[in-house]
From TrEMBL:
Matching InterPro entries: Bac_surfAg_D15, D15-like
Lipid bilayer topology: Multi-pass membrane protein
Coiled-coil annotated spans: none
UniProt source species: Cyclopterus lumpus (Lumpsucker)
The organism's place on the tree of life at top rank: Eukaryota
Compartments, as annotated in UniProt: Mitochondrion outer membrane
GO BP terms: mitochondrial respiratory chain complex assembly; protein insertion into mitochondrial outer membrane
Main location: mitochondrion
Name under which the protein is recorded: SAMM50 sorting and assembly machinery component
Key word Transit peptide present: no
Gene name of the encoded protein: samm50
Length: 452
């Protein structure tokens, strides 16, 4: 049979900045003959005529393609409702065995507001937002957002624009101010910055190039802050270029049952200005496999290195932190590794690995309903965080990262909150505890969107 794929008179982008839509992998069959086509437009309705020799097969294919087109329109974030009506061709321009596909859309208001709560890594916040969808008529978005949280307060203005005719390419510009409190380091940080991002797909990966310029103000959170933290206090200017690559085949980002994730991120600071100079590399790998009895086996690995450029040491705000209910369970939040007088200073190198087994609750209470949101959780975590002497070479780095490994194991219950976040209540047994580490031996509660 022959067909004509759905097309729009004006190219429209496929996704907004917060939707994270993956490109469609469905391939269209080969076209044997050049069929006739005619596109009629009347306000919000478009008719596409699909001639075919086998009307039943053509209709099924049209239904599938129409559904895909509807999903793409909804992902734009500019329509309140998209409905599809498929009928046989009628009228003067009707073709034999042709089909009329009608898209009836209702656009969002020119200005929308929102109020919601957001769960981060073991913190919560209230978010107020104001959005101008489709501000220039090509799915551009202008967004203002204010967030007030338990550890962080921020506000910012962002503009998002996709490239016409190339749905997955887009740019975004941001202006923001963020004030955060980090009690594990007795540190308060205020960032005022601007950034620009370019996102585009390459094969099955999502690539992002970013420039960021930020004025950072560090201060002590308490009078008891250590001298090492006081030395870090003051103003600094960071200008950096970064690149990230993501491959994500998981069926869910919160509690996946299958698929894999790989993230690689590089950041170079100092060559475009500012007084912070470093090269930062980190990665994340996750594998998920469904087993028997509706159980899921998951394995994760994180790692990163921070290399100072020049004679100036790295800044406390740029280093890595490890520990807590979202990483190495059984340890307090970011409370392992280098420290001074009880304040944790972060490290220049780290790794963390986790092995998890998720099973249904015993006796399956609430099966087929609310009970399916809960999973029993068995875990084994391990990792290390330290500073490195970069004059010693890679073998010395690996040896140091392999020394004094912290690890923990335990069992708990996981609650999935839709596709927003997840909650964990675990009984943890920390092992390999080093001097200065803070532990949470027993029950530990965690909430967030990114877990080891």
């Amino acid at each position: 049979f022959s067909f004509i794929a759905l097309q729009s008179l004006d190219p429209l982008p496929m996704r907004g900045p917060e939707l994270g839509v993956q490109p469609d992998d469905i391939e269209a069959p080969d076209i044997e003959h050049e069929p006739k086509q005619e596109v009629l437009e009347n306000k919000n309705v478009r008719f596409v005529l699909f001639p075919g020799r086998n009307q039943t097969v053509s209709a099924l294919f049209v239904m599938r393609r129409s559904h895909e087109a509807r999903q793409k329109l909804l992902r734009l974030g500019i329509f309140r409702k998209v409905e599809v009506v498929i009928d046989t061709s009628r009228g003067t321009h009707a073709l034999p065995n042709g089909l009329d596909v009608t898209f009836e859309v209702t656009e969002l208001r020119r200005m929308t507001g929102s109020y919601n709560t957001m769960v981060g890594n073991n913190e919560g916040s209230m978010v107020l937002g104001l959005k101008l969808p489709n501000v220039l008529g090509r799915a551009e978005k202008m967004t203002f957002q204010f967030s007030y949280g338990t550890k962080e307060t921020s506000y910012g203005l962002s503009f998002f624009k996709p490239q016409p005719g190339n749905f997955e390419r887009n740019i975004s510009l941001n202006v923001y101010k963020v004030t955060g409190q980090f009690p594990w380091s007795s540190l308060r940080e205020t960032d005022r910055g601007v950034s620009g991002e370019l996102s585009f797909p390459v094969w099955k990966t999502n690539q992002t190039l970013k420039w960021e310029g930020v004025w950072r103000e560090l201060g002590c959170l308490a009078r008891t802050a250590s001298f090492a933290v006081r030395e870090e206090s003051g103003h600094s200017l960071k200008s950096s270029l970064s690149h990230s690559m993501v491959i994500d085949t998981r069926n869910s980002s919160i509690l996946p049952r299958k698929g894999a994730l790989m993230k690689i991120h590089q950041e170079l600071a100092g060559y475009t200005g500012g007084d912070a100079s470093f090269l930062k590399e980190d990665f994340e790998i996750q594998l998920n496999k469904t087993l028997f009895w509706d159980s899921v086996l998951s394995a994760s690995l994180w790692g990163g290195l921070l290399l100072p450029i020049g004679d100036k040491p790295t800044n406390i705000a740029d280093r890595f932190y490890l520990g807590g209910p979202t990483s190495i369970r059984g340890f307090s939040m970011y409370s392992m590794g280098p420290q001074s007088e009880g304040d944790y200073l972060g490290g220049e190198g780290y790794w963390a690995g986790g092995l998890h087994l998720y099973t249904p609750l015993p006796f399956r209470p609430g099966k087929g309903g609310f009970g399916d949101l809960f999973r029993t959780h068995f875990f084994l975590n391990a990792g290390n965080l330290c500073n490195l002497n970069y004059g010693e070479g890679p073998q010395a780095h690996l040896k140091k990262l392999a020394e004094c490994i912290r690890w923990s194991y335990g069992v708990g219950v996981v609650l999935r909150l839709g596709n927003i976040a997840r909650l964990e209540l675990n009984y943890c047994i920390p092992m390999g505890v080093q001097s200065g580490d803070r532990i949470c031996d027993g029950f530990q509660f965690g909430a967030g969107i990114r877990f080891l």
